[in-house]
Amino acid sequence: MSVPQEEPQSNALPMVIVAGLFFILGFATWLNGSLMPYLKQILQLSPFQASLILFSFYIAVTFTALPSAAVIRKVGYKSGMALGMATMMVAGLLFIPAAKTQFFPLFLFAQLVMGAGQTLLQTAVNPYVVRIGPEESAAARISIMGILNKGAGVVAPIVFTALILSGFSDTAGGELSSNQIDAMADALVYPYLGMALFIGILGFAVKKSPLPELESEEEGENKGHIKEALAHPNLALGVLALFFYVAVEVIAGDTIGTFALSLGVENYSVMTSYTMGCMVIGYILGIVLIPRFISQQMALTVSAILGIILSLGVVLGDNDSFAIANALSFILGDAHFPDTLILIAFLGLANAIVWPAVFPLALSGMGKLTSVGSALLVMGISGGAFGPLFWGLASGTSMGQQGGYIVMLPCYAFILFYAMKGCKMRSWN
Fold this sequence. Notes:
Oligomer: single chain
Structural class: mainly alpha
Distance between the termini: 43 Å
CATH topology of the largest domain: Growth Hormone, Chain: A
Helix content: over 70%
């Protein structure tokens, strides 16, 4: 029985709760952009080792997406949210012994647990956005949640810098003493303890909140339909397009701080905020322009071409040039970043429209297979595990970290193929 249909006037409070959860999801996700270079400094990691921090977080989606759906069917959506947040709380607490021991595998395990908790929470909270209000306004609600998620990505690095890095602003680009390493590691303890307690209390509040329960879909509906769904080229290629998209989104959002650290930029830990800020701008432009002035397919094409141009600009750019920063001084103020860093941040503009455009194009004509197709598309998030990994591998070669961004070119090339041809394919023949 669907409570929202009976009491539509009660939708405001549930939507506020769901919006808060999307902000928490974004905050915990994009905190990785600051955590990665910070741990790289403390643990003296290679670029490949640092990329494992992101890999362990995003690979959890691959292993826990389907089990999360099974948990939701068994305990319900609201209890699923609470369990997801309880798992995230445990992950936050695991960072304390990891920081105290400075044991890299324990940090990776904490990241894996955090990713698993996030996957469970996402599996539970996403259906509320669509089903808790009128179907005709679902797109608007999805856009608002996207802005909240990426907006949290702007806030998270700033909070991380204020609470953790504020006393270590002069450590970028230099060798750290053992005392400095210990002090930087210890600085993680109280913020992660506070975050764990906050998430735990919020999870308990959600469990006790008046959030209505949603009906679960029958498990048997999805069985046997996966193969049938993948027989649709627009869906199968759409899953790959989202895989490559999340790969470049995470590379642009979470490796920019590590690259900034290698260039000796002092406030490297806030660089993710710039990429996320560009994504928020891109989201807003999408809401305004699509479909009034530009189609979803054309928006996707433009995004892919922009991604290719910016990626080439990063790989071939001059790290000693500050021309873009000087031209944008009225926006950036005192921030003085090399052109290559700003071009990585601009990738947020190229990435913003991809998910909202690919999703409907991939599900077009799916009919009864829409729910199965949606589940498969969400699994494309696992691209976030492999994109930074390949960037880390490339960075360990003679190309260096700057040249490592060349791995984004084939990703954007595939997205361009999908925009121009893949999304139109209805048969493999």
